[in-house]
User: Which sequence fits this backbone?
């Protein structure tokens, strides 16, 4: 059966000054592409007629070049189908293909690049669709795809030439108005559409803030443990990260002020600390804002999944307490809708608006306009609020399934901490190392992460796992926990000693 792999074009350079026959130049270029792996075995090549038209030569020239490569074993012809790269190359060609020139010396990574590579990365994903217990992914199986498709189709039928042109760097006005109305009702803050900046996911928002608000060498408070994506954004801006511990009330503001009172910025997840899940107490919130005012510092509030609560009372966002204009609120639709949408937003203080809009325009001009229009319709027509209500019920069910499965299969070896908000839970391990369990679980097709993967400070992290439950149906949670139990048992039989991720 013919391969479905197709090469749409080949980059063939011809020397018009007579250095070698055209036929030989064409065959040498195709041969080089095969040996370098540019075209894989089984790839269908353009016809000799198409090659001749592309190169501006006679068809006889390209036909002779192809026939020569067929004779040498590089290509094979299939009657009525076309010409393909040979599925099995001769031994001498394989040896030539595997030969690699000596590694050339290139410039090293920048200090920022090296810091990014060395930074803790958090959870590692296995290939394939969501599985037990993937972290950071919502219930994609419950997303109303047909409704979204209908909204997108309606927009496509009425799209105008103006909407095909460049859009506003700050984002579509109707979407910014819809978001401002939602966060005021749902998160207890005050803002207008002019303060909203649409970004390509919360991660881009963090990148833009780091670029505009920080100079290389500025000190920044970072929750420890904390979100690796924020750490990467800060490191990319050349910031000096000061790990600040988190306890049962959230970020320990007093310790941050003692070690780096002159910091330029603090990054926090006050509604649902990532990854521990504890909310920041009112006393700590007020202390953080007081420090920011004294130090003339900014505060990033990452409100990534606070929409989902299970018996917990809604807690207003930190931005709602800010009377000094120091809090930059970052929100995301990756957790409330789906990650591939790549849309998020920021509530921007007036002093940063010009700089962030300019940085937004410099990054990629604006998010895709069609996606913004569909999202705006989804919010304005009430679908977003209904979806959130539905998902709260579903996630409570999935959390309960996780707890029941842990009790049934893991007993006293895995204790899930109380979880009343968000999309993941922390589970303490007894008798097995979290890093070893993570490896054993991956070998069994289960995704978990050691809590140590989110730590950067000097303190020894608890021996615990981070378990996502939002993307895991109850039946899959039971199967996944059974495999995780086997992974814990295997790790107990192979003691490796506690070590940092």
Assistant:
């Amino acid at each position: 059966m013919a391969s479905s792999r197709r090469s749409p074009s080949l980059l063939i350079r011809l020397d018009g000054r007579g250095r070698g026959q055209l036929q030989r130049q064409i065959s040498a270029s195709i041969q080089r592409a095969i040996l370098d792996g540019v075209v894989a075995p089984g790839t269908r090549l353009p016809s000799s007629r198409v090659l001749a038209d592309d190169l501006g030569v006679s068809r006889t020239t390209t036909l002779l070049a192809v026939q020569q490569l067929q004779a040498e074993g590089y290509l094979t012809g299939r009657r009525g189908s076309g010409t393909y790269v040979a599925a099995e190359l001769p031994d001498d060609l394989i040896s030539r293909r595997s030969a690699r020139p000596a590694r050339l010396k290139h410039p090293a990574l920048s200090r920022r690049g090296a810091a990014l590579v060395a930074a803790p990365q958090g959870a590692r994903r296995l290939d394939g669709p969501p599985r037990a217990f993937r972290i950071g992914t919502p219930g994609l199986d419950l997303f109303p795809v047909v409704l979204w498709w209908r909204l997108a189709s309606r927009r496509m039928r009425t799209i105008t030439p103006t909407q095909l042109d460049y859009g506003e760097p700050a984002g579509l006005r109707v979407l910014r108005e819809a978001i401002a109305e939602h966060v005021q009702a749902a998160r207890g803050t005050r803002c207008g559409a002019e303060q909203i900046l649409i970004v390509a996911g919360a991660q881009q928002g963090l990148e833009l803030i780091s670029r505009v608000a920080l100079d290389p060498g500025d000190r920044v408070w970072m929750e420890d443990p904390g979100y690796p994506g924020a750490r990467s954004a800060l490191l990319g801006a050349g910031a000096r990260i000061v790990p600040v511990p988190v306890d049962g009330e959230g970020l320990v503001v007093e310790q941050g002020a003692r070690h780096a009172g002159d910091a330029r910025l603090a990054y926090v997840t006050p509604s649902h600390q990532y990854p521990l899940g504890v909310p920041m107490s009112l006393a700590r919130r007020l202390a953080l804002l007081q420090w920011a005012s004294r130090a003339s510092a900014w505060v990033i509030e990452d409100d990534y999944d606070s929409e989902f609560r299970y018996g917990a009372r809604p807690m207003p966002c930190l931005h709602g307490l800010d009377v000094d204009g120091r809090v930059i609120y970052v929100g995301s639709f990756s957790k409330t809708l789906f990650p591939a949408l790549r849309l998020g937003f920021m509530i921007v203080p007036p002093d940063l608006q010009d700089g962030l809009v300019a940085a937004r325009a410099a990054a990629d001009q604006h998010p895709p306009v069609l996606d913004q229009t569909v999202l705006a319709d989804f919010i304005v027509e009430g679908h977003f609020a209904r979806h959130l209500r539905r998902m709260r019920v579903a996630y409570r069910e999935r959390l309960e399934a996780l707890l029941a499965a842990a009790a049934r299969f893991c007993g006293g070896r895995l204790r899930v901490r109380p979880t009343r908000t968000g999309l993941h839970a922390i589970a303490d391990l007894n008798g097995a190392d979290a890093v070893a369990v993570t490896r054993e679980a991956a070998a069994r097709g289960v995704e978990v992460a050691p809590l140590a993967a989110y730590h950067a400070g000097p303190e020894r992290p608890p021996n615990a796992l981070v378990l996502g439950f939002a993307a895991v149906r109850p039946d899959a949670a039971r199967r996944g926990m059974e495999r995780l139990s086997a992974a814990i048992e295997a790790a107990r039989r192979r003691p490796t000693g506690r070590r940092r991720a």
Notes: Confidence is low (pLDDT under 50) at residues 497-501. The first strand starts at residue 75 and ends at 78. DSSP finds 16 helices and 14 strands in the chain. The longest helix spans residues 383-409.
